[in-house]
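FAQ
Q: What does a multi-component entry look like?
A: The components come first, one per line:
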Amino acid sequence: MTAITKDNRLDETLVTESLSRATLDVFGTMLGVDAVAGPRYTEKQPAHPSHGLVSLIGMAGAWVGTGGISCSAELACKLSSRFLMTEYESVNDDVLDAMGELTNMIIGNFKNEVEEHVGSLGLSIPTVIFGRNFVARSTAENEWIAVPFECEGETMVVKVCLSPQSNRPVVRGHAPPPYMVD
Amino acid sequence: MPLDVLIVDDSAAIRKILQRVLAQTDVPINRVLEAGDGREALNLLRTEKINLVLSDINMPNMDGLQFLTEVRANDEWKSLPVLMITTEGSQAKVMEAVQLGATGYVRKPFTAEQIKEKLATLHF
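Then the predicted structure of the entire assembly, as tokens:
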């Protein structure tokens, strides 16, 4: 398998398999939960739920992008309850922190695998968003690769968008600082 | 002699899990202190007697490798056991931690047994 395609994207099968391995490892080791990966899909804009939880973590190096997970509040509570061995009936700071750490481990392990192909990547601190009726938007040009996982009777989506740094779009309306000009 | 342990991780969830794991080990524990980043951990080391540190790498303010560098630069803490517990799994990162003086390295996700096995090698 060629890890990087001719149009400078990560091979989708490689990404899918790596995300699946990372997710199932975290679920099995830290949560004791069985999860089943569904078929991957790609999307230009991440289909964030209109309500629920989204947890995102940035990656940066020769390639840049974002990885994250999204699920309902109910699933977040179930997973956090397993993770911390404490019952959570509603989303609170503990649940947000737990989901941030699960994202850190899943995307962190994905990062460890793809670094073989794209070089060293730094990982940001996770950001977790919870609410109702929200819309998220990404300025990334490349598509998101998403893998849904069925667990505890619900679906959690793990997704990533990663592209070479030279492909980053220029933010319109701002002149680049002098040091960025070739 | 029961140990005074310092857990350094920006995730409260991981700190809670590691507290639970420590309570399950055969290693006698006197108390467990927590820090959310390397800077907070250094402040605690300056005021508390600590026998063992469990530290993440990716943290805000001061990361685990910077923290480790500061610890090993201080004569008082040169022999302090510091076990890194982190998602960073590349060979390069492990080598860097070892060269900076990490006593051991455990990758996340981890099982309680993996932590216990690592602690057993420290011969408390």
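Q: Is there any commentary attached?
A: Sometimes. For this entry: Chain A has one domain: 12-156.
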